[in-house]
Amino acid sequence: MKQQEQWTSKLGFILAAAGSAIGLGAIWKFPYIAGQNGGGAFFLLFILFTLFLGLPLLLAEFSIGRTSQKDAIASYKEIAPRTKWHWVGILGMITSFLLLSFYSVIGGWIVAYLYKVITGQLNDLSSTDYADVFGSTISNPGISLLVQFIFMILTILVVARGVQKGIEQASKIMMPVLFLLFILLVIRAVTLDGAMEGITFLLQPDFSKVTSQTVLEAMGQSFFTLSVGVSVMVTYSSYLPKSESLPRAAFSIGGMNIFIVLLAGLAIFPAVFAFGLEPDAGPVLLFQVLPTIFSQLPFGMVFFGAFLLLFLFAALTSAFSMLEIIVSVLSKGDARKRKKWAWIIGLAIFIVGTPSTLSYGLLADYTLFGRTFFDNMDYAVSNVLFPIGSLLIALFVANKMKKSALYEELSHGSSLKKGLFNMWFILLRYVAPLLIIIVMLDVIGVI
Ligand code: PFF
């Protein structure tokens, strides 16, 4: 196999890895799951899981990738030859595939909204009209499939061009602007009449709302937003030169992620309460609330258009990483094969995603366990596959990699305190596996 291409700069890697992490998870999924789980307590649990499980796991994936400098399957084979551990990589590829199949549905919704804003269809509507317009758009099978297809084509085109040229360049441009627009949005939302109730909802934990299900969802959400458990971060860090500090990268990505989750919460919930909407509206929440907030700003629709463009970009950089992990394994560094596989896998993902898209229209009444196809897919990926992948990665790093070699890998680029390293190791070896198993067993009622 050819040696992996390397990122042309450290910033390129950080931006691409942060681009993978920051996406629909923080901006779309967090508000709706928090809204369904009572707000503050969920937020607190999410932060705790992110700090004590998500971040250590992110660092674990980075260590695997940079130690081996190989893709998501070859990495495990290199470190633990003649074992079955490379199945962790295969599981990650399957998870990524399924994830992108419904992630692209929401990506498509952004494309559809963007089109509506650009063509002026949202000017001068009232807040209930926004919900109606949105509802009728996503329930239309032709439109919703078309926009999902557009989202997938954009993803395929970038991944087909290859890591450095495609992902890195695209990642360098828009993130800071997204942050700025978000801050503007938060300022508008928290100064609305009646905003306080939303702020309290997000920041004041009410533990009476916490069930074992809430705990599982908070854990799944922390893995989801950091992109850990699927070996995507193994793949990305395999392109990183040895001179860079992995802990520093992990902290900056984790920090940005928590910050954007906080911004999303502070933008959405004050507006939800100020406008008398329901926090538990589910996956459509963000799309119903956002235009309402923007309509309260001067030049609101201009800002809304800009926001959607950046939001689309954030979703795409995450989507790139999901497709990239699969394509990098299948193409093994060959540019022609990369192109071919990007198209084949990308289109297959679109096809598998169609029932998820239609869950908001034609298939809305077909449910299993009281959930639509879309909701079941989301649930299985976020709350089953992510935790299992994360569990296996923690076990792999803590048991199959040499502790001294890990310390050395994490000390490149800046010295790492031994105590901090030991704490990380204990978290991976004992705390993460135990906690993940307990939370999962608790939900199925075994304990
Ligand atoms: N972290 C991404 C988000 O929050 O939108 C989702 C994601 C991307 C998860 C890539 C996993 C992954 F491998």
Features:
globular, 447 residues, 18 helices, mainly alpha, Amino acid/polyamine transporter I
What does this structure look like?
The protein has one domain (10-443): Amino acid/polyamine transporter I, CATH 1.20.1740. 77% of the residues lie in helices and 0% in strands. It contains 18 helices and no strands. It has helices at residues 10-21, 24-36, 40-68, 74-79, 87-118, 127-139, 141-161, 163-190, 195-203, 212-226, 232-237, 246-274, 285-294, 300-331, 335-358, 373-400, 403-411, 418-443. Helix 1 packs across helix 14, helix 3 (40-68) packs across helix 9 and helix 10 packs across helix 18. The longest helix is centred in the N-terminal third of the chain and has 32 residues, at 87-118. The N and C termini lie far apart (46 Å). The structure holds 4-fluoro-L-phenylalanine.
The CATH superfamily title: Amino acid/polyamine transporter I
Shape: globular
The overall pLDDT, averaged over residues, is 91
CATH-derived topology: Amino acid/polyamine transporter I
Structural class: mainly alpha
> What is the straight-line distance between the termini?
46 Å
Number of domains: 1
- Count of helical segments? 18
| Percent helix | over 70%
> What proportion of the residues form beta strands (DSSP E)?
under 5%
Radius of gyration of CA atoms, rounded to a whole number: 21 Å
Low-confidence stretches: none
